[in-house]
Amino acid sequence: MPRFQFEIAVLLAVCAGASLSFLSVSKLRSTNGKIQLPLHSEGNGSEELTPDPFDVTTAEDYLEGYPIEEEKFWKKTKWGKIVLSILFTAIVALQCACLSFFIPGNSKDLTIGVIHICFPLYLLAVTLRSLSQSTVEPHSESIIHLAALTIVASLTQGVIAILPNTPPVVTPLTVLAGQPFLQYASIALYTVSTILVFVTPCGPPLHYPNEAIYSSKVVASTTNQDKANVTGIVYTSPFGYLFFTYTTKVVMLGNIAESLEIGDLPIVPASMRATVNFGKMKRTMQNIRLKLGKWRPRAGSGWQTAYQILRLNTEVLIAQFLLAAVSAGMFYVPAFFMQMLVAYLEKDPDREQRGWGWVYVVGLFLSYVIVYLLTSQLWSISTTTIQVRFRIQLNSVLFAKTLVRKDSASSAPPKDKDKKDGEDKNNKKDEEDDFSSKAQIMTLMTTDVDRVSEFAWHLFALVDSPIELVIGTLFLYKLLGYSCFFGLAVTCLFLPMNHFAGKVVVHAQDNLMKTRDERISLMNEILGAIRMLKFMAWERSFEARVLKIRTNELKYQKLNYTIETLWNAIWNGSPILVTLVAFWHYTVIRGEVLTPAVAFTSIMVFNELKFALNALPETFINMLQSLVSLRRIEKYLNTAEVAPVPPIEQQSQTIAFRSCTLTWPQDRVQSSTQTSAAPSVASTPRQKFVLVDLSLNFPTRELSLICGKLGSGKTLMLLALLGEADLLTGQLLCPRSPPNSIALFEKMDKNEKWVVQGITAYVPQAAWLRNASIKDNILFNLPYDEERYQKTLEACALVTDMEILEDGDESEIGERGVNLSGGQKARVSLARAVYSRASILLLDDVLSAVDAHTAHHLYHQCLKGELMEDRTVILVSHHVQLCAPGASYIVALDNGRVTFQGGREAFQGSGVMRSLVQATDVDNTADDKDEATVEDQVSAALEGKSSEDVSDPSSETTTIALAPVKEKKPARKLIEEETRAIGRVSRDVWMTYIKACGGYGYWLMFMLAFVVAAFAPVAENGWLKIWSGSIGDDGTSPHSPSFYIGIYAAVCGVGLVITTLRWFVLYRGSIHASKVLYKRLLETVLFANTRFHDTVNRGRVLNRFGKDFEGIDSSLSDNFGRTFQYGISTATTIITLSVIGGPWFVLGAIIIGSIYWSVGKVYSQTSRDMRRLDSVTRSPLYSIYGETIAGVTIIRSFGASSKFLRDMLRCVDTNSNPYYWMWGVNRWLSVRFTMLSCTIIGLVAVVAVANPGISAALAGFSLTFASTITHDLLFLVRRFVSLEQSMVALERVKEYSELKREPPEFIEPRPPASWPTKGAIKCEDLVIRYAPDLPNVLHRLNFEITPGEKVGILGRTGSGKSTLALSFFRFVDPTEGRILVDDLDISKIGLTDLRSKLTIIPQDPTILSGTLRSTLDVFDEYEDAEIYEALRRVHLIPSDTTAQEEDTLNANVFRNLDSPVSEGGENFSTGEKQLLCMARAILKRSKVLVMDEATASVDYATDELIGKTIRQEFADNTILTIAHRLRTVIDYDRIMLLDQGRIVEFDRPRVLLSQPSSKFYALCKATGKEEFSMLKKLSGL
Fold first, then answer.
1. Model-level pTM?
2. 1023-1079 pLDDT tens trace
3. Which long-range contacts (CB under 8 A, 24 or more apart) does 1134-1141 make?
4. What is 267-405+437-639+982-1296's CATH topology?
């Protein structure tokens, strides 16, 4: 019987037994019940009855896909299985024949023979069982078992077959004879069956509907029409799984197509889809808690979330750890075979017994193949599976949290940067808990989630490295004896440094993250307030502010780099030190001779150990960084939430406050638990506004009005009804929309009643609009009802706008509605609520942004029209005169207290009303008949040539004449699709980086450092060769071992210093490049023209400043350096080997190099495309984050939370697909490169055995270098592609660094410093259009304004009023004509000079976060006394100087200049923000002041007071005021009336009012009888 048959029989029996037990367990599991979809309401009994509104998973989400040509597949597979059955039957017959030869033998032989028969019999049984299987799970299970068993049988039988009959040269062995023919036949049959099983697919190809996972836009752009659109990993064969053949389709697709689209890529398996992962993560967070005995982790420590995410992914993590353990065990097997091969060549230099040589060659080759296949699978699981899953799970759960989290980001003050050190330390912990800025929440969802998910790459090192260290140590012991322990003891010295370095790393990383947060937060604000910055010419000042934070950030980045480099130096030094100590002890102390075999094998093992030792600290650092991020994520997940909303039928329909005290939401975890006993008012934090003791009862199905002065708490009252405010005492009743309302309404019955009782809708004061078409904004995911939609447009006065907008209701709204006028934004926002199915409408000051005529229309046609029948409307408004007569219930507030509540009659009789309306005797007996005629008059006067706003990008308002009805064209894109480059990264981009790093001197130093460092290993190995070769035949050496070890130590030491220095050189250039490139991008974006800011999504620009720059800062330089390092290392190795191997080696290198090149080329094209797609698909994801964080209150009020969640999960799927394939393609390349590497090593070994002319030393040297070159080549390609992918970030940054800029800041000669001294304005033939392809907006305007004149500019929404205002600041330059200010043509003046000398108070007030002082006095130019005076002038603080007590309830925050201002000033009402902008204008004191709807959101009484202030303060200044309130401008010097971009009237108000035919007369008359007579009186008639 052949050798080792007993051992093989035992192995086969064990494998078959294991397979049988696995199959039995799986059979038991499947009979216990079919797989159920998870039940989503887990918990106590009461919860089970309530479906979870955030459960957005459907049954289809769990499907892998629908089989294609299923019958045909199973038929074909059946034939394959029949062939297998025949093969296994033949093996059984052969084994029986074999047994007949051994029957006379002993019982051991008989047992072996029986096992050899039973094994193929078992294979036959499994195959026959699988013949009836026609479903994927059991079939794939059978195939996997057969594949594993046949490969074991083939390999073991094959290895035995090649063992020679002669004893080996290295170790003696007993030889037995056998029956070669039967044995070889059996091996052949096993091999054929193995191949057949390996290529059998595990299931039919699958199709999954694209529209179930992607948005309609992605589906429309798909060009790949392949039906089998689900990734092959689900149904591929075992061979395909091991060699990633299912990815070949993607690689080739990327190579053929000019550019890939998301829809062209195969869809990921169900376990990788966002909905499935979100559902699982949500249940895990609800049901799984970390506890060890009585110990539980502190909330916010990060351990809880870490435990939950590990528990959720237990299966893949176990697979990862098992693979890591096996591959770690296999790592030293190639070294073992290499040692055996070199030893054989030493013992048999004439190659007399080549048989054993071939055995070692096969062993070497197979061990490399197995190691590389295992590590490929290990990396595949780590990157494509675990990493992508971590990312999806954390992202989705953070987004879901945002949808239920209290919106305290809006009302929270920013951090105070100027705290004392002691104070700072105490508050540091609090600060971290406080996610007050919206940008911080964005950072959490992007940077922090990425950091945690990327830890998946390092996770397996926790298992892999320790095993490698143990096996490596044993190997070294075999080579060097106990000397190796002296060497390894040195590594223990490095362990305490771990702890210290860990602390430093976390601290540096923490600081880096904080400064990055701060910078992104400021950039977010700057981009949001870019128009104001341009109006004020503040670009340079804010540039300096950002660069100051950036310098700080780069300081921490540099510190991080320094720590990393020193850390790596220590860990690179540790194996060198270990080697030195071990060799020193071996040669000097023990006096052993260091032979080449011992020296080179030890070095190889030490190098393998170096990887293990290096992996541990890197993993350790990454683990700490991930924990920092997890801590932040967990803190956010623990923040306070709004109260959950019960189903509609369980809610009371009453709307009432019962003894309530309310305040703005507080973001503290504790407050969410204090539901039983509400704390007293005293616990309200200082500087928080409180609504005290409310007892109100709003009538249902009626209109109620909430009025009150500026900042009296009206918005807070509406938010309280929505459940968004904190209830301190009392009871609050108001129905709220369940989070899944919109999702449930998507499909509705024709006969169903439209208005659903108990559903709410909310219209905020500052319109929140999505970047979508007007129609989509109004429908807000509800089904389209033509009749209702048209009625809504009419009621909201949007019909005319739709006619005038080029694309009608398909016109795309820019981000934050930039391309609509204030009035249009307000009306679209209102239309969304009117169209909705809500029965309760909460409207916050919707009439303030429109003119008197439109306000009149909205009130009568919309708020009191047929669409409001059966609906409860609660309106906050300053238009008391207009609204009070129709309101059933009125509430008046003043500084947080109710001053009046009751019916309209009582209100009209009370003194409260007089304080809120314009100063006049109110007589409410309006003549309906007369009013109707006024309406007709106004319509006749203003709609004769009806015209409205063409909302062109950079405009507030624009106009064109009404064109005849034209055929409908597809709507134009306003927010342009994000472009992505195609093909290779261009030379320009490379040159940009090279120049940014430094000049010729820097690159010379760089080249020198890297080239010298590359020769360090050659010098080290060269000296070892000299040392080991110095021993003569008599065993003596010309020098003492101390001499050799001394020089070896010196060579290694110098090498270490140089290799460390090269990284310092690299990072110096990298920091310089980061500085230069950031400054360039920042400057370009700040000075880009406004059209860019209006047409480009803010998330996209932030993506450049955030994610792209994070890549440039942290990974670009690393990839650049490593690519260079591996390139030079490869070149060095090839040169060295060419010198030794001669021309034949050079020829071989060229052939294999060309194969490498072609595989690498195919890969790099696809990989680059994947990276670009990944970058481009991030932007919509960031946009939906941004939109949701900003509009969470509106989303919740409409009940759209679950719809937004589903949309976000679609975006996550769209983004994770290219990311998944990016790593899939990486694995595809890896496995092919490593197989080529194995071939090279195999060939080198074959040549060494075949050619007796090659000595053992030369063979060992060649093999060592062959193994390093393959590693270097693989990493060279991988790093180069990573470098190209990092360059994509630079490419995107470069694109935005070359934007078209505004005209220059300064033009010589500059105007005098005192200009304008008078304030005279002259317009000559002014023609303006927004773009060459758009119609004119202003048509040949000619007018003169004398110094100090006050001019009111009136006109319908969209008549060109704001355009005229913008033209004074050169936001749009004249197409023809010119504007002169004090006889200077403004087009000849630099923008900074012009804008800094004029002042505008814009329609939508913008203030930046900080304190009240920093908002009003951005650059510390004024004294506190001046600031207080300005606040008095705008009536934000009373003129008396009485100090208020510290604990006054609802103290006036404007009295304290250190009062916090939150991001975007959201802790102030719109009216208060407008007054702050006016106070800023008073401080600036420009000669020319333009006011665009500057007091639209201010109550009438305050408006009148401000009117007086303006007349007193700006008596000598020229003022242009755009207003909808006629009272504001009635006493001005002149009135300009615009219509369709032409001046129709321009004269004194008195003159115009004395002409009944004038349009101004018609406008005034439309305000009602009383107001009309009052206007006449005020104008002096």
1. 0.77
2. 776 776 676 666 667 777 788 888 888 998 999 999 899 999 999 999 999 999 999
3. 1134/1269, 1136/1018, 1136/1265, 1137/1262, 1137/1265, 1137/1266, 1137/1269, 1140/1258, 1140/1261, 1140/1262, 1141/1262
4. ABC transporter transmembrane region fold (1.20.1560)
